[in-house]
Automatic annotation (TrEMBL):
SUPFAM superfamilies: Ferredoxin reductase-like, C-terminal NADP-linked domain, Globin-like, Riboflavin synthase domain-like. It catalyses: 2 nitric oxide + NADPH + 2 O2 = 2 nitrate + NADP(+) + H(+); 2 nitric oxide + NADH + 2 O2 = 2 nitrate + NAD(+) + H(+). The keyword Iron-sulfur applies. Residues 1-130 form the Globin domain. InterPro entries: Cbr1-like_FAD-bd_dom, FAD-bd_FR_type, FNR_nucleotide-bd, Globin, Globin-like_sf, Globin/Proto, MRET, OxRdtase_FAD/NAD-bd. In the C-terminal section; belongs to the flavoprotein pyridine nucleotide cytochrome reductase family. Belongs to the globin family. Its EC number is 1.14.12.17. The keyword Transport applies. It comes from Streptomyces litmocidini. Residues 138-238 form the FAD-binding FR-type domain. PROSITE patterns: FAD_FR, GLOBIN. PANTHER family: NADH OXIDOREDUCTASE HCR (PTHR47354), PROTEIN RFBI (PTHR47354:SF5). This is nitric oxide dioxygenase.
Amino acid sequence: MDHQLLRSTFAVVERRAEHAVTFFYSHLFWHNPGVRELFPEDMLPQRDRLLAALTHVVTHLEDPGLAAYLGQLGRDHRKFLASPALYAAVGQSLLAAFAHAAGAAWTIEAEKAWTEAYGHVAELMLAGADAAAGAGEPAWWDADVVRHERYGDDLAVLTLRPRQPLLHLPGQYVGVSSLRVPRVWRTYSLADAPRPDGTVELHVSRIAGGAMSTALVEETGPGEVLRLSAPGGGLVARTPPGGLRTYICAGTGWAPVRALLAEAAAAEPDLEGRLFVVARSKEYLYAREDAERLKERLPGLNVTYITAAPRQRKDQATERLLRALRACVRWSAHDVYLAGPPGFVAEVAEVLEELGTDPERIHHDTLPSVGRFTTRPNTAAERLLGPPTPLWHDPEARAPRGASRSF
Ligand SMILES: NC(=O)C1=CN([C@@H]2O[C@H](COP(=O)(O)OP(=O)(O)OC[C@H]3O[C@@H](n4cnc5c(N)ncnc54)[C@H](OP(=O)(O)O)[C@@H]3O)[C@@H](O)[C@H]2O)C=CC1
């Protein structure tokens, strides 16, 4: 496969990304009646996803991990009912869209290289899907809601009982779908290590105007069924026994950190480390009771809770956290596990590096780059191409940092 040719044609298509994606979906839906029904009503996040996946492929052509990534993507696409016929239809529409967007750059050689590349991608994705099916893994897990607890105006903890065992590593996330918002999937971290009773817990923060988070926080209740997709994500324990570690979480970022700590409490109760729990205000410090219980099982864990002082600026919590982190020592000896809003993760990771933490040892999920910490160029195509998987809540939907929020 001619990697250079793939990259150079993609660079041309990328400049007209919005146009190419619109053409792609119009072509796909026009030529394949019935396929539109497989996609959500709101196609905007979907467009980002396609481009994010394509960008990942083009930027990782020489990466030996690419085959595994595509296998996982195929495994995950079983929840969308992606059949071999759909993969073929997508391939045809993708090549038509690329030809349309690339103009004169779409030579016979370019078409040949992309046909071959897409064939390879589809083959690896289908192999991932087949392997999961062969291992008896369902395309998704139906899960009964058994408990729904509210904290503050816009936070809920949902306890679910999947109808088939859901194997996962502490710290991983799942896709969640509800019949209340058809065909939409959103990612949430599982908030515990696997439990003996098989239940799992999701922590959901409602986003103004967010259909799924509103449905989960305000409308969903016990007795309802949600769908969960295969667990994924790399925010999992990576510290060798005896190694020092720091956990830092904000808001519902507590969920994966709690799972990691529950695992450590069982496997390594003499662990030495520090935990920082950040919340926008006292009412949202819903983690406190659980953290206290974990601290009893992990006496070597130093716990700090940080919120903005009453009636203070809303961004004071992060400032207080950064001050507390600067007061700590031996950052070069710690693994750091980080979870929370994308801007928070970017800001804290930057400060940790300044303090001497090895960037390889700062562990967090892949979140979209946003706000003033964005390092990518900010062209229209770049904005469209920006969000990598998993698709987290749209941070733009939140009140700007520092602006007054009503709660
Ligand atoms: N695996 C992961 O990484 C997970 C990530 N998440 C993400 O975490 C978020 C949770 O939302 P929610 O519970 O409502 O959190 P909040 O909006 O309540 O934020 C929690 C804290 O994070 C700080 N914060 C928020 N935005 C920024 C920013 N741009 N820069 C610096 N600090 C910031 C706030 O500090 P201040 O008060 O100083 O503004 C606040 O105290 C969601 O975006 C969700 O997608 C959730 C679960 C797992």
